[in-house]
Amino acid sequence: MLARYKKMDVCVTPYPDVSSSSEVAGGELKPFPERLFAAPPRIASGSVPGVSVETYEEDNNIWKKHVNAYKKINRLIDSGRYRNILDMNAGLGGFAAALNSPKLWVMNVMPTIAEKDTLGVIYERGLIGIYHDWCEAFSTYPRTYDLIHAHGLFSLYKDK
């Protein structure tokens, strides 16, 4: 069968149903920067398997603690020296949220082989991110990033 005669599959996820026109599909988002640490609607509603509001808050606290430790060791993090940061295994986006600064931005990468797909959580936090298979070339040159964070990445790919 020719490709032009093949029935097309739906590839766009529909918005969740709402009961009135004043409701926001998916859930109300807090204003930025408050939404960096507020539980995103998809976590609050239980849409992300294995992630509860409690585990989300624990993740936030862990990353705040780690980033504070990083800042004690490397005082340049808050100086504006690192403007472009790559998080190679972003998880819930806690590292980027803990770094919150107008002096920098973080590209959050969700590995395609990650156990949990949390890119939507990253977006609902007001952060940016992409999917990527680290066995393939990355679309931007890694040296364009001033700091590369790879927490847990090598464990994901140890059998590749």
Task: Write out key terms for the chains shown.
glycoprotein, single chain, alpha/beta, globular, Rossmann fold, 160 residues, transmembrane, 25% helix, transferase
Integer average pLDDT: 87
Radius of gyration: 18 Å
Distance between the termini: 36 Å
Major pleated sheet = 4 strands, parallel
List the total number of helices.
5
> What class, by secondary structure content?
alpha/beta
From the 3D structure, determine the CATH topology. Answer: Rossmann fold
Beta-strand percentage range: 5-15%
Helix content: 25-40%
What's the SSE pattern? HHEHEHEEH
Which parts are unreliable, with pLDDT below 50 for 5 consecutive residues or more?
Answer: none
Look at the structure and name the CATH superfamily: Vaccinia Virus protein VP39
The tally of strands reads: 4
- CATH top level assignment: Alpha Beta
Name the overall outline: globular
Count of the domains: 1
Named CATH architecture:
3-Layer(aba) Sandwich
Strand order, biggest sheet? 3-2-1-4
